[in-house]
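U., I forgot to send this yesterday:
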Amino acid sequence: MRKISKPRAATSAIALAAMLAAGGASAAELGDVDTPIKLAVLEWTGAQLSTQLAGMVLTKAGYSVEYVPAGSFPQYSGLSDGTLSATIEIWSNNVGDIYPRALEAGDIENIGSLGLETREGWAYPKFMEQICPGLPDWTALQDPACVTALTTTDTLPNGRLLDYPADWGSRSGEIIADNALPLTAIPAGSEGAMLAELRAAEATQSPLLLMFWAPHHVLSEIKVGWVDMPPCTSDDPDDCIQPPEVEKVVWSGFKDKWPAGYEILKQFQVMSPDQERMMAAVLEKGDSLEDVAAGWIAENQDVWQPWLDAALD
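Result:
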């Protein structure tokens, strides 16, 4: 799920730093600096980068940090018993039943949003707005000219929606059926196949509509639009396509053991454009996670220093 020198809006970084400093916690003690803070390292590149950044910021405050490989579901056992101290990037659409049970039992604590602006839904290369002028309104997908542009030999007479790979699961087919859209969802073979199609469509200006999510490293390369999704008729929100929350979670004893670290992680944020650029550096250019994260730390002291100041001063 995703050269660090980049154009970035200086005003947004300064505004973020000011906001965090203004709303920061009162000064706290470091606590048990002799015991490492153990951060869960999950399976996808974006979470690994978020975790590296958090660990480096904690190290700047004077803590030692260990990075512990952990699966998305097994991590909750470690967080509940304290063998893991924190996890930095939990997606609310991928938590199963164990996460809410651990929260309810008080074994873990949700300490707030990571700050990523997430998206999930039907996306298209921006040039599609010339082919289907009503986009991003979903009703544009009913226009015969738009449908014809998206039609393939596999989907005649319907337009084609490139869906998630079959083993990922998807709600697109149900939403198409519920709204009687002239589209057929065709599963992609893999994430790599989806990226290849998106890049080819951008290069050749070929019509494409696909199920996708953000942040994703390819979005630092290709600008897409997002369909304002059709109505979802299900009574179960999990059956609908909606942006997931991305949250930070700590072991219930974290605040008492590392008070300043707790305040730092509460304030810790990662912005989606930054994560997308960092993921691209790792996945497309082959840079190491550690080097990419260290580059962000070196270039963004104006962002992370207020987190330390608010916790420690």
